[in-house]
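for ur thesis appendix - aldehyde dehydrogenase (NAD(+)). copy paste whatever u need, i formatted it the way the template wanted (i think)
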Amino acid sequence: MTRQIVSVVGGKDVPSAGAYQSTNPARTGQVVADVGLADAGAFADACRTAKEAQREWAKVPPPVRGRVIASIGRLVEANAESLAKLVTEEIGKPYAEALGEVREIVDTCDFFLGEGRRLYGQTVPSEMPDKNLFTFRTPVGVAAVITAGNFPVAVPSWYLVPALLCGNAVVWKPAEYAAASAHAMYQLFVAAGLPDGVLNIVFADGDQTFEGLERALGEGTVHKVGFTGSSEVGRRVGELTGRHLQSACLELGGKNPMVIMPDADLDLAVEGALFAGFGTAGQRCTSLGTVIAHESVHAEFVERFARAVREARIGDPTQDVLAGPLLDQKFADRYEEYLTWIQPHHRVVPGEVGRITPDNPRGDFTGDGGLYYHPVVVDGVRATDRLFLEETFGPIVGVTGFQTFDEAVELANLPGYGLSSSIYTTDPKHAFRFREGVSAGMVSVNNSTSGAEAHLPFGGNGKSGNGSRQSGMWVLDQFTRWQAMNWDHSGRLQKAQMDVVDITPDLDFRL
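the 3d part is after this line
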């Protein structure tokens, strides 16, 4: 039976102003959910509702809010298989990866439940006698969170869990093509004991969301915006929040490099490149963009990499496969455009390109009517090529070469993104020099460009973000503001910098 899903604000269903069908990309005729879309007015109303609810939620002691987060984690854990199966059904993510994604929510809850007892401030010494100085973390207010659908439950948890723990209310706008997964996650969060209005979910298209967000910012009912998506849309969100004197938390795209040094373990590098480039069909913000291989190992690496890609299993995401289909038709259309960027000076390996169909099969696999595409490795990419400079969201990896270490670092930074990066080497000097030189917010040594842990900062620079970080204790700075307090118990007015205790040195003293 097809799921019927609508927005929920203040615990109540919101009337729909439009409609959307979420379909299974592995079987494109199968409808997963009929989604009622809200309009800009409903989004703005949700922000007003959240502002009212946030006042009381902020009064709940942080350790008690931490217990709610703990309950969310236990509920997600108890429903992990069902939620993972829904993710696989709705976006075509292989089940093993989907189950790992759900586990990321649990890990995030496990980390942040303790932060309810560690929202520490400080006691600071004053330059005045009989005066104490304090600092406190206070909630920002209402957070508007807009997320993509390639990680429909894990990445949203990086925003929702710390935002709620810190005493904020949230209006969450998930991707429409992953609406069923998002709605199921919303239900688990609410079942943990969140009061009505503290977490609201709004399904809307991009234009209505942007208009509603602009209204809410103008009315002062949104105090923080979190956005995961493309660099192009991230710029618009950053511009909008900047006009209202806010800084958004932006987690954007990537063109993530992997450097292969002459001393690299090539088998390990191939394994890392295969997972980074083609896991989730290359549809991660941390997916491998370009392999930068030293000239002495370039040819051998490409040969081994092409063999691994040729042997990798692509197909039904409910089975043991490296990758399933692309997420949605719009991503398939965009990916086909990326394939037009392949130039005559490129060498395509293993060879097959395009959608997997009975006329263009992958071995015995003919595509089953889903949005399946051949994984592609493009050797001979140049630093001036679009394939080198621009993000390609899908199963395509470029390969280029280098002669010197400094050249490799320069190539790694050249596209202007700065999310994730990787280097394969057995030389600690090169590992640390790469860390110093690369612009990425995350660096892996002898590991893939993909992968995150709940207690490490996640985020990028340049086209990949504005330096904000998710996960770990670092994200607390996104959802709290520092408040300073001074308490003078001297019984008289003391004026800082005017009434400081004067200790006069003898500056003419000589030994």
